[in-house]
Specification:
By secondary structure, the protein is mainly β. Helices cover 7% and strands 55% of the residues. It is built from 2 helices and 11 strands; from the N terminus they run αββββββαβββββ. The chain is elongated, with a radius of gyration of 17 Å. It starts with a helix and ends with a strand. The relative contact order is 0.22. InterPro entries: Lipid/polyisoprenoid-bd_YceI, TTHA0802/YceI-like_sf. Pfam families: YceI. It comes from Nocardia panacis. This is Polyisoprenoid-binding protein.
Amino acid sequence: MSTSTANTLAAGTWVIDPSHSTLGFSVRHLMVSKVRGRFTDFSGTLVIGEDGSASTDVEMRVESITTDNEQRDGHLRTADFFDAEQFPVATFKSTGFRVVGDDFEVDGEFTIRGVSKPVTLEVEFLGVNAGMGNGPVAGFEAKTVINRRDFGITIDMPLPDGGAVIGDKITLSLQVEVGLQS
């Protein structure tokens, strides 16, 4: 994390506010549109050290996935996709931060279905605000693209005329608000 960004964030533990955050995704559907979804049960922290160092950990409860379609959501929870019974939590743990202009990139290990792969999040720092009486809050937007097959989600649902029901590339889009806890 940049010194200037770290200097605007007080040292301590910043906790994700799930009521003001979204952990979402999108994937190609029938090769002509995109299905969007999100996880509704998640938690995480951003720890800023006295020296300006930073680390982050996030957990998502897989059974909380929603695409606003009950039948599809039920299928996504099965062993064909996330296997929520065997692997109830997906995680992201940072391994490094890099300055990129006014923003930064966060490297980390993303784990789905027990498979961990390195990913890099492109992060836009939206700033810090004094908050609404409960202490300072900060906002971030982040995104990355992963390949579902890299995480063992290899179901093939071919279409009769070519192509597939779902694409391999998943775009993860995060809008996160954190509050300083300590």
